[in-house]
Amino acid sequence: MPRVLVVGSANIDLVAAVERLPAPGETVSEGTLLVTHGGKGANQAVAARRLGAEVRLLGCVGADASGAEIRAGLEAEGVGIAGLATAPDAATGTALIVVDARGQNQIAVAPGANRRLPPSAVERWETDFAWADVVLCQLETPVETVVRALELARARGKLTILNPAPVRDLDRSVWPLVDYLTPNESEAARLGGVSVAGPEEAAVIVTLGARGALASGPAGDLVVPAFPVTAVDTTAAGDAFNGALAVGLAEGAALWPALRLATAAAALACTKRGARPSLPGRAEVDALLDRAGPVDR
């Protein structure tokens, strides 16, 4: 099995589905509520696991009922959580998500225990970095912890993926530690135009929503078309993309088929409500790829 190590966040998601997103100061009523598990790290770990990888997660939750629920949910998915720490002095991270009838969303996050993951916490699990084929990080945990994780991965010659979400200040010294940088379009713009010309040390893959994805690197550009679907909720599409990309690369696939796998997983994630419930299994993704047939690069 391909082996993926994820270093990242784990949250409880409170999702309100309403007809339209509220304007500043406005209340939009008559919605419905879904309480589920999320966090970019945990979502990407589950996405990779459902696609057939062996997965371990390094992160931190609170010593509360939400943290216990997250642990149980990840264990039920088959994600290794030996490295999921508990912060006694912080609540489990919580995301407040509003989704409209077109599947567009607004998200506010109280990171809580996710900010209690120091570099020393990942150093304690150096054997996991030796075990992994791919190490996948995001930016919902402390930046210094992400950098340390990337350093540990690079020292062992592992492929690294950095999903720079949410965008935070990063020193240029980070780029030599990254093989694949995966911002969405707005994140790419905020990072200084990496959608056009990324850091020389990393291949940049910009996710473009309904327009697919654009990969730019030393070998040139790849434009990956999207799979047409009816979007219900786009909340976890980026997480599905990153988890699937990690699986494809861990399987030894070239970038093009890995991107096709990731784009198909992201499309399917848009067709169901909620972050974790929307993440597709491998059979579902393979069926979509088979129906679409081969696509010229």
Summarize the structure in short.
With 297 residues, the protein is of the alpha/beta class. The protein has one domain: UDP-N-acetylmuramoyl-L-alanine:D-glutamate ligase, CATH 3.40.1190.
Characterise the protein shown here:
This protein is α/β, with parallel strands linked by helices. It has one domain (3-11, 39-93, 112-292): UDP-N-acetylmuramoyl-L-alanine:D-glutamate ligase. Helix content is 32%, strand content 24%. It contains nine helices and 13 strands. It has helices at residues 40-50, 65-77, 119-123, 126-131, 143-155, 185-190, 237-250, 255-269, 282-292; strands at 3-7, 11-17, 32-38, 54-62, 84-87, 93-99, 105-110, 134-137, 159-162, 180-181, 203-207, 213-217, 220-224. The strands form two sheets. A nine-stranded mixed β-sheet has the order 5-4-1-8-9-10-11-12-13, sandwiched between helices. Strands 3-2-6-7 form a four-stranded mixed β-sheet. A hairpin with a 5-residue loop joins β6 and β7. α1 crosses α7. The longest helix is centred in the C-terminal third of the chain and has 15 residues, at 255-269. The radius of gyration is 18 Å and the shape is globular. The two termini are 27 Å apart. The mean pLDDT is 92.
